[in-house]
Write a structure and sequence with these properties.
- This protein is mainly α.
- It contains 24 helices and no strands.
- It has a single domain, classed as MFS general substrate transporter like domains (Growth Hormone, Chain: A, Up-down Bundle).
- It is globular and about 75 Å long.
């Protein structure tokens, strides 16, 4: 029997292995994951910069509100191409070089957008940038989950969302900085300077090691062992993780060769779609429902409507000048980034489940407050009458909403998605989660203007509050606590029976994952 925590819950094997070095985080693992997470700046920058650039683009190119909706929301659909391709590319050339590829594609897209002379050219540049964003989003997640030790995996796998928020903030700052240029130049500089972060990403990533799981899948056990010894909290944990990954790859645990031949079925994605969708085991089905549900509700609760259309929200709240609206978006970006940093330091202390439930509870209240404030401004603020309380409620509710989102819903959707899938299904499973996130975001963003014209701006946020309430019930029902568990232990939390003996052929029939006792 394992050791007991104070609340009676059993300790996992890696929690015990990782317990001694609690005095500090693994700085090498942190450095690697921070470099990989730079990829998420690309997504964040595009989201942030479009919120302010849209007004100037609409004025110069003379496009309609519908075209604005498509322009802002289509990036997420374009990114699906990169997201799905990343799953295959990451298993083919490795996680590290896939990040380099993502940076190169986004660099080209940002330059194309900056030099766009018409709507069609701008959409083409956005298509190229979207592919790069899709690559960057999925591969940073996968790499961080596979490099992080169990003791601080929540912190490290939440870093991509930190850098998404940093990117959003940089986009807001770019909007404010270039808004003073003449109209024909300002928005082009806003979009074009997005190429700069991709250069730093492409160069910085070359200092990272390859993922130990990818190395094992390619039979490079010596290289994988070397990486694990640097990124784990102790030699014991490194040995345990290597044994778990070898078992998942169909390599006998007693094998200590530097390079071995890995069974072809365990080396690539063939059969993964069938295992995920056609004949999933009950535990895999629950993992898939959980991962896709998290990504759906994260976006369906309206975060991108607030982030991308914040100038319109602040205008409805009584802030009329363009510069003041952009200034408020910068303030919102700072607050959002601050609270995402707070979340990263609590995710491995408080746990995933409490943060997620608390986050959505706060979002429900904030969205309801925003709906009340904007409805009052719309219905009672006519004839020049200013409702100071309604304006204050609208602005404070907006800031509270992005704060609560950043504490849990933002980072934890990616933490859960990156850690709960079995090894052989992880890249494609995470890609499916990203696809649901991007499609949902596209639908929300591309319908927001039409939605608030139909049911009012306040009514749209009441709708988002209702969706967030359904999300809270879903999370309460489906989400287990995964803090401190190894990636190879996750399936037992979702109903997989513990394996007591290895199959006769020495290989796992599906993922080869052996579970250690766990619980919610």
């Amino acid at each position: 029997m394992g050791e007991k925590k104070e609340d009676g819950e059993q300790l996992s094997s890696v929690e015990k292995m990782a317990a001694p070095p609690k005095q500090g985080r693994n700085m090498y693992a942190m450095g690697c994951t921070m470099l990989a997470s730079l990829a998420s700046i690309l997504l964040g920058y595009d989201i942030g910069v479009m919120s302010g650039a849209q007004k100037f683009i609409q004025k110069e190119l003379h496009i309609s509100d519908t075209q604005v909706e498509i322009l802002i929301g289509i990036l997420n659909l374009y990114s699906l191409v990169g997201s799905f391709a990343a799953g295959f590319t990451a298993d083919w050339i490795g996680r590290r070089y896939t990040i380099v590829l993502a940076a190169a594609i986004f660099f080209a897209g940002a330059l194309l957008m900056g030099f766009a002379m018409n709507y069609a050219f701008l959409m083409f540049g956005l298509f190229v940038a979207g592919i790069g964003v899709g690559y960057a989003t999925i591969i940073g997640l996968t790499y961080n989950a596979e490099i992080a030790p169990a003791s601080c995996r929540g912190f490290l796998t939440s870093l991509p969302d930190v850098f998404v928020n940093v990117g959003i903030l940089l986009g807001y700052i770019s909007n404010y900085a270039f808004s003073h240029l003449r109209q024909s130049l300002g928005w082009r500089f806003m979009l074009g300077v997005g190429a700069i972060p991709s250069v730093f990403l492409g160069v910085g990533v070359l200092a990272m090691p390859e993922s130990p799981r990818w190395l094992v899948m390619r039979g490079r056990l010596g290289d994988a062992k070397e990486v694990l010894e640097k990124t784990c909290d102790s030699p014991e944990e490194a040995g345990l993780r290597l044994a778990d990954i070898k078992r998942a790859a169909g390599i006998p645990e007693e094998c200590d060769e530097v390079v071995v031949a890995v069974p072809k079925k365990n080396r690539d994605d063939r059969g993964a779609w069938r295992e995920l969708l056609q004949w999933p085991r009950p535990s895999v089905r629950r993992v898939l429902i959980t991962a896709l549900g998290i990504q759906f509700f994260q976006q369906a609760s309206g975060i991108d409507s607030v982030v991308l259309y914040s100038p319109r929200v602040f205008e409805a709240a009584g802030i009329k000048s363009d510069n003041a609206q952009l200034g408020m978006t910068v303030a919102m970006g700072f607050i959002k980034t601050l609270f995402i940093l707070v979340a990263t330091f609590f995710v491995d202390r408080v746990g995933r489940r409490p943060l997620m439930l608390g986050s959505f509870a706060g979002m429900i209240v904030s969205l309801a407050g925003l709906g009340i404030g904007l409805t009052a401004m719309d219905k009672l603020g006519d004839g020049g009458q200013q409702l100071q309380w309604a304006a204050a409620l609208s602005i404070s509710s907006t800031l509270a909403y992005v704060s609560f989102f950043s504490i849990g819903a933002g980072p934890l959707a990616w933490v859960y998605s990156s850690e709960i899938f079995p090894l052989r299904l992880r890249a494609l499973g995470a890609a499916m989660g990203v696809a649901v996130s991007r499609v949902t975001s596209s639908v929300v963003v591309m319908t927001f203007i039409s939605l608030y014209k139909a049911i009012t701006l306040g009514g749209s946020f009441f709708l988002y509050a209702g969706i967030a309430s359904v999300a809270w019930v879903f999370f309460f029902t489906f989400l287990p606590e995964t803090r401190g568990r190894t990636l190879e232990e996750m399936q037992e939390l979702f109903g997989e029976e513990k394996k007591t003996a290895a199959p006769e052929n020495g290989k796992d029939d599906t993922t080869g994952v052996e579970m250690v006792n766990g619980g919610n």
